[in-house]
Amino acid sequence: MSRVQHWETVYRNKAVDQVSWFQPKAETSFRLIDSLCPDRTACIIDVGAGASVLADNLLDAGYRHLTVLDIAAPALEISQGRLGERAAQVDWRVGDVTTVALPEAAFDVWHDRAVFHFLTDEADRRRYVAQVLRAVRPGGHVIVATFGSDGPLQCSNLDVCRYAPDDLHAEFGAGFERLGHHAEMHYTPAGKCQAFVYCCCRRG
């Protein structure tokens, strides 16, 4: 089964509030974006957003230029239905983050919660970082959240990579200035605890 087929199947067959990564509110992501880039005219992309409510939270706070990217069209359709008329305020894009065409130097903030750790192939990780370098303007911010070093070994029946903060930052390299990291214990709808690490950096 291809990557696209896998995620389309997930969103067609599971309720949004039953997937393990579900959050009723994207509190940590929103707080980090708000602290790093309080300008409400900033251009923000949420990569691998699925049906996350982060777009809702950002719109509620007055952010005006949002792009939401996911590999699975059904996930974005769920978010669009939830937002109703406000969905027109978001640029929705369907594609694989490692290959999708993104505008050059277009974004002030790149946000990814729980995509990068699915890239178990080094070549995919290199393509991902190249996309960040291409799409984020110099001086822009990058927020990437993955399973921490003591997090799960699999998610959605797929193998994942786990990261300590230093290891995650090392994947991005010298072109990014590390600003800090934040540990989070995420509780799934089934009550399981998952260790996440959010790393923040500035694009050089």
Give an overview in words.
The protein has 204 residues and is of the alpha/beta class. It has one domain (3-203): 3-Layer(aba) Sandwich (Rossmann fold), CATH 3.40.50. Helix content is 30%, strand content 30%. The protein is built from six helices and nine strands. Strands 3-2-1-4-5-9-8 form a seven-stranded mixed sheet, sandwiched between helices. Strand 6 (154-155) and strand 7 form a beta hairpin. The longest helix is centred in the middle third of the chain and has 14 residues, at 122-135. The termini are far apart.
Give a quick summary of the entry.
It contains six helices and nine strands; from the N terminus they run ααβαβαββαβββαββ.
